[in-house]
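Section 3.1: Structural characterization of target chains.
Under the original work plan, the team committed to producing a structural model for every single-chain target entering the pipeline before any wet-lab resources were allocated. The record below documents one such target. The sequence was received from the expression subgroup and is listed exactly as submitted; it comprises 389 residues.
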Amino acid sequence: MTTSFDHVYDRRQSGSVKWDFMEEKLGLGSDDLLPMWVSDYDFKAPPAVIEALESRIQHGIFGYAERSDDYYQAVTNWYQHQHQIAIDRQWITTVHGVLPGLSMLIQMLTKEGDSIVMQTPGYGSFKKISEFNQRVIVENPLLEVNGHYSMDLDHLESCFQAGAKVLIFCNPHNPVGRAWSFDEMVAIADLCDKYGVWLLSDEIWGDLAMPNHQYISALSLPVHLQHRLVVATAASKAFGLSSLRISNFIIPNDGLRQQFVRRLDAHGMDVYNSLAMCAATAAYQTSHSWLEALKGYLQANIDYLADFIAKELPQLRFNKPEAGYLAWVDCKALGLDDVELEAKLVEAGIVASMGAGFGTNGSGFIRLNLGCPQATLIEACGRLKRALG
């Protein structure tokens, strides 16, 4: 069994949020719309993962399941060999998805009315889960110069001085595509340590650092900066397993980890999906080479879009992401408001994630999902030119 990244699969009528639920989620119902919004990709999972799942299904018994030695070993080996980080097996806690785990941490570490910082433009679900838990989101806008983003540490410190309790940190960053440097992360962690702020680092995009760029986990921080740290990760983005809900929350602090495990138990989250564990284990054990091929293909898609915009839509600005397959495209030079911009895109048959949904400094941007066969990207670029050319 092999994977062809060029093969175009029909995902309609498969229960896909990206393809089948645009009308319900966005109010857009045309069959001719090309979805470039939700951040999952249109490739099959690695062949070894599919084979492992098929074998597990043939076993035919799906009773209560726990994490095996193979599961833990797959995770720790992956971090050791892929990212040169030694993780103690005891640090690993397992949750049915990154967002549920972050939500429970917010409940555990803060009280109603407390402030939580997120860096914007940023993943809108951080804001959603915080506000649904009656916490207050404080935006720490990233600094942008010619499409390159950096952190505003002075403003972040003022947020902490004002009493924020938690920073939800996105590493690598969705949507701007930065893979943060070690020095940048140390600066963040120093501030968290100084002001007693919990650092929750969502690193779900870490395995998709592009060629010539490096993902550096917050688990690389000096030991004295790890006592207020939680790192959330999963195999889902890299290996196309988003609906097989399983994630790992890696917590070096023993007391914090024990408190979190009690919180999971209080929610009845002490049994795990056997197929999700099977898929994640197989991905980490067998699919390094497959992932490298995928990243090469994604880089080619990124390069194609960059060349297309430079030649055909020079009024737009696009800086290539350092990690992930999401393109953050600056459309402000068009002079359109967000409603007008979206209307032009939809009229041309392309559905993007609108930048305004990523915070106040996302207005005028769109986010495009490049995790697709190149034929799909070529079609999307044609529609983009019809919309904005």
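The mean pLDDT is 96.
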